[in-house]
Design goal:
The structure holds 2 protein chains of 2 kinds. By secondary structure, chain A is mainly α. Chain A has helices at 9-38, 54-64, 75-92, 110-118, 121-131, 135-166, 171-176, 183-186, 188-202, 213-216, 226-251, 265-293, 299-327, 340-367. Chain A starts with 8 loop residues before the first helix and ends with a helix. In chain B, 47% of the residues lie in helices and 13% in strands. A 3-stranded antiparallel sheet of chain B has the order 1-2-3. In chain B, strands 6-7-8 form a 3-stranded antiparallel sheet. Chain B has a two-stranded antiparallel ribbon with strand order 4-5. The two termini of chain B are 40 Å apart. In chain B, 51% of the residues are buried. Classes of the chains: A mainly alpha, B alpha+beta.
């Protein structure tokens, strides 16, 4: 069953661009609706049926707005920054497989590529912060650089557990490995750490410190307007979607629909894509939910959390995984119907996750 | 700080926050000197909302002054009116009828809840949570509608008069307030659950902006800011006025005077206010006079003399000092605004705090710029 998209890569990327823009439009609308209902209001209601045209209307408005460059700004740096934020995030989509066949380019080093690109937009944010010649923007840029770089480490370590278990960096193969059991079962701690670091990479609540509205008034974005601002915005929501999709691929079994073997290629592709997207949207909803509920951390608490909690525990996760893989099969199985290494991974991982939760609780109490 | 070996210097950055900034709750400006994320020093600038009410009052009739008081602390209008009118009544030697007294206390205490709800929402936004604001406004809106039915205005009520009230309470007022109390109590509990136990909220507020009792007294702080530091000082208790001596309520007190205590004291005060309102409703005569006759403008004159009178406003000890030369208007009027004194504590609190704490500390002082500048 070889059903690849019958276009050459350039055209596929154009299609992908169209898809990404539309996804962002949907996400902005979804966020406003979800937040509205969490906060006991309705969200957009005036533009079209239940405000469904609000996102396109905003997009048109942004396109027609004046693109201002402050006189004192570093023109080149300032004007280039939004693109350096958006392009790396967009590049992440290239290798994320929606199904085995619905992928722009399946890379053997896919995961490595993704981890590399997921932190590249720091450069753009720093440029925006520096180029704006604004103190709020500078603070925001410095904050985002500090935050993204420190959260890059636990992210990479958490992913390492997946790589050890599946023995590959190819995302399609990683999903195929989850045909029976999604990796969240074997890597509970890895999943939690990856989720938290992803939130920080996306700059979403409670880690929205670089943009903190009530402190640095939008951070690196503060001087931007019109289309350049819209591109930052596009990048933020695209990164939200990409990160959620990546979590689905790595931990939640991707497009693998349970009990749906033996379907013809087209049905299974459609079903798989729907399965994949619904899981992704569920995660996206979770992120919106957090934004509607949680306050924001302070920058020093954020850094302490990364270095004192996430990095040690992501190491622990990596060591546990490696240990279970090497010695697990020589030990008796802990759980019925599961082979020994798997059972040790599940039990040790769950215990470690509880330990992690307790440690986080203790640390917040201590700083409090 | 300098590092002479390289020839490069690191220089502290000066950040101008305000007068237009989402965290300043009005038009307040502070210049922060920061070393990275640490605040080294802070220069507050006030005066952007100065409207000269104290001077204006010298040219207006005794009753016309009330509209200006509404506009000083524009979140606790009834409380301001009450303070001024109790002062005038004392000078005139009249006392409002019982029904009017109870009505005034009910409205003032409900106004305290409105004001603290406003604080609750804004404080949540300062800490970075966007939802508490809308939850708080849901409760605030119920009361705001009630106030509108009483006085005809949502914000600038102009409802209390020397000797009583402008007119009787609308029919069904008591029943409406009675029906509303459990709803507000439930809403308060909901707000409490949303923020008070949140780990992130705790880690952002506990231990931040500590102020000892001695410092708080030395800086002239009052109200929740003072009580959070552990001083059980409440004008309603220490220098009672109107019918407060007969009412039963607690004065919540904090322990270590940090941002969380200031928040917690206010949340508790809202519950106490509900208790007070309940008692007043039970005791208020169903009907009767609502105003002791006092000559109206331009015939109303106050005997020559002077008076200082202070009451417990949501923000603290609100005082009014009036000199009368026996004319139809005050010869001199001066307000003691709690926000102003509380704001003075900002500078010592901010020293060595993080930049993000500046927003939280300023929020926890709960200033109203209309009252700071008058």
């Amino acid at each position: 069953m070889n059903l690849t998209i019958p276009f050459d890569p350039a055209i596929r990327i154009l299609i992908l661009a169209a898809v990404v823009f539309n996804v962002v439009l949907i996400l902005t609308y979804a966020e406003r609706k979800v937040l509205g209902h969490i906060q006991q209001r309705l969200g957009p209601m005036r533009t079209g049926f239940h405000g469904i045209l609000q996102a396109p209307a905003d997009a048109v408005k942004l396109m027609f707005k004046e693109d201002l460059t402050p006189n004192s700004a570093d023109r080149l740096v300032y004007q280039l920054a939004p693109f350096l934020v958006f392009v790396p995030i967009f590049m992440m989509f290239i290798t994320i497989p929606i199904t085995a066949t619905l992928v722009v380019q399946n890379l053997d080093l896919g995961l490595f590529y993704l981890v590399a690109f997921s932190s590249l937009h720091i450069v753009g944010l720093l440029m925006a912060g520096w180029g704006s010649n604004n103190k709020y923007a500078l603070l925001g840029g410095a904050r985002s650089a500090a935050q993204l770089i420190s959260y890059e480490l636990p992210l990479a370590f958490a992913v390492m557990g997946v790589v050890l278990l599946t023995g590959t960096l190819n995302l399609t193969t990683i999903v195929h490995n989850q045909a029976l059991v999604p990796l969240i079962v074997l890597q509970p701690l890895g999943f939690v750490i990856f989720l938290i670091t992803s939130l920080a990479e996306m700059g979403r609540t409670p880690f929205d410190i670089p943009m903190a509205e009530s402190e640095v008034v939008g951070g690196p974005w503060v001087e931007y307007s019109g289309m350049r601002w819209a591109i930052f915005f596009l990048g933020e929501y695209a990164s939200l979607f990409a990160s959620c999709a990546l979590i689905v691929v790595l931990y939640l079994g991707g497009w693998m629909v349970p009990f749906a073997g033996g379907l013809d290629p087209i049905t299974s592709t459609v079903l798989g894509a729907a399965w994949f997207l619904s899981k992704t949207m569920l995660l996206v909803f979770f992120v919106f939910w957090l934004r509607g509920t949680l306050p924001r951390l302070r920058i020093d608490q954020l850094m302490a959390f990364a270095w004192k909690m996430l990095i040690p525990f992501s190491f622990l996760n990596l060591i546990l995984t490696a240990w279970a893989l090497v010695y697990g099969d020589e030990l008796p199985s802990l759980l019925p119907f599961i082979h020994p290494a798997g059972s040790w991974l599940i039990v040790a991982g769950s215990v470690a996750t509880v330990m992690f939760a307790y440690a986080v609780h203790r640390q917040t109490r201590r700083t409090a | 700080m300098t590092t002479p070996t390289t020839g490069f210097q690191t220089v502290d950055m000066h950040i101008n926050v305000g007068p237009q900034h989402p965290a300043t709750h009005g038009v307040f400006r502070m210049v922060l000197q920061v070393d990275g994320e640490r605040i080294v020093d802070c220069d507050p600038y006030i005066g952007y909302l100065h409207r000269g009410f104290e001077k204006l009052s010298e040219n207006e009739g005794w009753h016309d002054v009330i509209v200006h008081l509404d506009r000083t602390d524009y979140i606790s209008q009834f409380n301001n009116e009450l303070c001024y009118l109790l002062a005038i009544e004392k000078m005139l030697g009249v006392e409002a009828p019982e029904r009017a007294q109870y009505a005034r206390i009910i409205l003032s205490e409900l106004n305290r809840i409105v004001s603290h709800m406003m604080f609750y929402g804004a404080f949540g936004a300062d800490v970075g949570a966007i939802t508490p604001f809308l939850y708080a406004f849901r409760e605030r809106e119920r009361l705001q509608r009630l106030f509108e039915s009483v006085s005809g205005a949502r914000l600038m009520h102009f409802y209390f008069r020397a000797g009583g009230l402008k007119e009787d309470l609308p029919s069904g007022f008591e029943a409406e307030v009675r029906g509303m109390l459990p709803t507000i109590a439930a809403g308060l509990d909901e707000c409490d659950r949303l923020l008070s136990q949140n780990e992130i909220f705790l880690s952002r507020t506990v231990g931040v902006g500590k102020f000892t009792a001695q410092e708080a007294i030395a800086y002239g702080c009052s109200g929740p800011v003072l009580r959070a530091s552990g001083v059980a000082e409440d004008v309603r208790r220490s220098n009672p006025y109107s019918l407060y001596p007969t009412l039963d309520f607690e004065v919540p007190v904090g322990k270590q005077g940090d941002c969380f205590d200031r928040y917690w004291v206010r949340v508790q005060e809202m519950r106490e206010s509900l208790k007070i309102v309940q008692q007043c409703l039970d005791r208020m005569p169903a009907e009767g006079s609502i105003r002791t006759p006092v000559p109206r403008y331009p015939f109303m004159r106050v005997e020559a003399g002077e008076i200082y009178f202070h009451t417990e406003n949501p923000r603290g000890d609100y005082g009014v000092y009036i000199i009368s030369k026996g004319g139809t208007e005050p010869y001199r009027m001066r307000l003691r605004s709690p926000s102003f004194s509380n704001l003075m504590a900002l500078k010592p609190m901010l020293r060595n705090a993080y930049l993000a704490d500046a927003v939280v500390i300023l929020g926890s002082l709960d200033i109203v710029l209309g009252e700071v500048d008058r």
